[in-house]
Each structure stands twice: as C-alpha cells, then as structure tokens.
Design goal:
This protein has helices at about 10-35, 45-75, 85-95, 95-100, 110-125, 140-154. The protein is mostly helical. The chain is elongated. GO terms for molecular function: G protein-coupled peptide receptor activity; peptide hormone binding.
Length: about 150
C-alpha cells in the first residue's frame, strides 16, 4: 500500500468511517421491522443482540470522534515531531474488540456495554429490552459518550 495511505490521520478516518458505517447498517436493520412485515424481533436473543451491537457501534463512533480530536491535539502540541501515533491506545479507547485482536489489555467500550447488558438482563428483562432508554442503566453508555464529547469541546 502507498506509504501516504498508512498515515495516522487516515487510519483514524478509516476507523471512524467503519464505525459510522456499522452504526448505519445496524440502524437500518433495527428499523427494518417497521418497514417490512418480516422481523428479527420475534427471536429474543437476536433482537437483544442487534440492540447491543447498535449500542456498541454508537459508543465506538463517538469514541473515534474523540480519538480524531486527540490525534489533532497531540499533533499540534506534544507530538509535532513524532511520526507515529499511539494506535494501540487509540484502538483501546475506541474499538476495544479490535484491540483484543492485537493482544492489548483493554476494557472500556466492552465493559460499558457488557455491564449494561447484564443489568438489563437481570433488572429489566422485557421483550427486546423495550423501554431501555428510560432505564437508569442507559447512563452506562450515554455517560461515556457525553464525557467524550465534552472533553472534545475543551
């Protein structure tokens, strides 16, 4: 691959694009039962799985936006003469699942989503976790999203 296509800025853009595309695909899948008669929502585990993946992709998208700002900030201030960005750290912050493929110990997105799933399964075990947005457990996902956006503003 061309060396200019491997620069850290484009790697961050590529991962952000993948996260946003995954989020869009899951949004289409989750809204398809409204548009068509066939529905995955009749299968409980599949419905909860799609919702969980949608939450994960939303959190990862916001985290990749945060990493974009982090990379820009580090390029302007600290690492102006350093060529390589700390991508292992960036993968830990944003993807978590991808970071485990690189054998990096990390817990952030998977911990938030996993804890949310456990609490929803034990304390709000309704069909397809309907009404999940009104539960206090949603702050396990929206809290880190809001924090990443607020830190990005600073």
């Amino acid at each position: 691959m061309n060396r200019s296509l491997k620069c850290s800025r484009l790697q961050v853009h590529r991962n952000l694009s993948i996260a946003l595309l995954l989020n869009l695909i899951l949004l289409i899948v989750s809204s398809s039962p409204v548009l068509t008669d066939s529905s995955y929502k009749h299968t409980e585990w599949l419905c909860k799985g799609v919702l969980t993946l949608q939450m994960y992709s939303s959190l990862s998208s916001i985290n990749w936006m945060f990493v974009e700002g982090l990379l820009l900030h580090s390029r302007v201030t600290v690492h102006i003469f350093k060529k390589d960005a700390p991508f292992k750290l960036y993968y830990c912050i944003a993807w978590d699942l991808l970071a485990t493929l690189f054998s990096i110990p990390t817990v952030f997105p998977a911990l938030c989503i996993g804890l949310w799933c456990l609490l929803m399964a034990y304390h709000h075990n309704t069909h397809c976790w309907s009404g999940y947005g009104g539960q206090q457990y949603i702050w396990l996902i929206t809290g880190p999203m809001i924090a990443a956006l607020l830190v990005s503003l600073i």
